[in-house]
Q: What sequence folds into this?
């Protein structure tokens, strides 16, 4: 059964044109939707736009870690994961070749992106934000006081202005027409993401357990979703995908070599890809345009923290944006966001980066799995640090 949490536009392109906006948020994934919700709850006129129709599926391992659940709770959305029927995490099963290790992992939940993202957009709408789907947004060259944002629907195009733009367009989103403003530094060793969802989940895949397989060509994660579909998400070497003649072939090969249950329908599933995963913007803010979530930068997903970084970023950027609107100073907000982002996200992503680099050497996952199969408790300090709450001062709690 496929989940269906439809969220509709609350405004039309013509109506958008006639309104004035404090903040335009581009991208209604987790970073954008939470930012819109927090800013609207503080009384700002917020327009949230996305080119997709929701619910929308995206390549993701669907594991919302403990830090992410904590950000939602501290944003006043403590019931959201329960309302989404998210499955509490209970274990992690890692394999490398035929060896595997299982241990306790009871921080966070598994929830489909269709359900989670739609619920968060609905929360933004409930807080007073206007939402517009099926619209591609493009920001005109940056000006110090006001941005012009072109919104292109299937038949109409309008321009709106706002002093603050939140750029939450994800890894592959493009919001500027000139290439210089879009420039990102991409790691030369980066892998690409790929994923699919299968309607049938093998019975061996237990609810609440993450099944992770490491291989010389990348890694593949499997989880059972709340509606009993199987989510498959992988980070793979581009050359290995080419050699295997496609992601489905490579994922099947990796699962067959491991102790993980493979399923025949992997090859017939519809596979989607992502751009290079490890990349970042040199500057995460330009005047009043703040880049949040994957749009600011991302590191390979082995530790499953991307959604936590997106939510923490969305929350913190909203607090700064609201302050800037209230004070009328939309210039210093850029420097404040660069500093917040460095302290809150970049520092935290270093462990993830180090682990991703270590996984390039097959001996490291092989040895780690061998050691963890005998001493599973050794994994606990890592699991705890990945799931630790973000520092309080950077997260705006509801008044
Ligand atoms: C293989 C893989 C597995 C992962 N597994 C996990 C995991 O288990 N746990 C975890 O925490 N994280 C995981 N992640 C990371 C996680 O998916 C991302 O970090 C997270 O989705 C980032 O959210 P976001 O809001 O920044 O961007 P997104 O969720 O990508 O949202 C961006 C939105 O912007 C819209 N958009 C783009 N351009 C425009 C435009 N010009 N105009 C209008 N709309 C636009 C898009 O339609 C999209 O809806 C994984 C990632 C990959 C690739």
A:
């Amino acid at each position: 059964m496929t989940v269906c949490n439809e969220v509709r536009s609350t405004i039309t392109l013509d109506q958008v044109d006639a309104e004035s906006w404090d903040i335009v948020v581009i991208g209604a994934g987790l970073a954008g939707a939470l930012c819109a919700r927090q800013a609207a709850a503080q009384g700002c006129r917020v327009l949230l736009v996305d080119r997709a129709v929701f619910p929308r599926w995206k390549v993701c391992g669907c594991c919302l870690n403990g830090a992410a659940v904590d950000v939602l709770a501290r944003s006043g959305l403590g019931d959201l994961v329960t309302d989404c029927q998210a499955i509490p995490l209970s274990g992690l099963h890692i394999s490398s070749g035929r060896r595997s290790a299982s241990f306790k992992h009871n921080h966070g939940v598994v929830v489909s992106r269709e359900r989670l993202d739609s619920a968060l957009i609905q929360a933004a709408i409930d807080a007073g934000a206007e939402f517009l789907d099926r619209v591609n947004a493009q920001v005109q060259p940056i000006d110090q006081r006001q941005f012009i944002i072109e919104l292109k629907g299937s038949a109409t195009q309008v321009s709106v202005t706002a002093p603050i733009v939140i750029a939450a367009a994800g890894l592959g989103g493009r919001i500027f027409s000139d290439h210089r403003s879009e420039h990102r530094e991409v790691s030369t060793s980066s892998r690409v993401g790929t994923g699919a969802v299968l309607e049938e989940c093998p019975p061996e895949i237990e609810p609440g357990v993450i099944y992770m397989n490491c291989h010389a060509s990348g890694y593949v994660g499997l989880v059972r979703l709340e509606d009993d579909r199987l989510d498959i998400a992988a980070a793979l070497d581009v050359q290995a995908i080419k050699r295997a003649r496609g992601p489905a072939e490579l994922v099947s090969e990796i699962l067959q070599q491991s102790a993980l249950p493979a399923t025949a329908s992997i090859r017939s599933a519809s596979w989607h890809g992502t751009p290079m995963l490890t990349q970042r913007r040199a500057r995460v803010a330009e005047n009043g345009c703040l880049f949040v979530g994957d749009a600011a930068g991302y590191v390979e997903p082995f530790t499953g923290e991307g959604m936590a970084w997106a939510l923490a970023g969305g929350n913190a950027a909203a607090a700064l944006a609201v302050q800037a609107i209230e004070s009328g100073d939309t210039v210093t907000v850029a420097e404040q966001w660069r500093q917040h982002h460095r302290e809150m996200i970049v520092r935290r992503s270093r462990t993830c980066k180090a682990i991703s680099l270590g996984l390039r050497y097959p001996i490291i996952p092989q040895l780690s799995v061998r050691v963890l199969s005998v001493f599973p408790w050794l994994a606990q300090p890592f699991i705890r640090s990945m799931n630790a709450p973000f520092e309080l001062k950077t997260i705006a709690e509801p008044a």
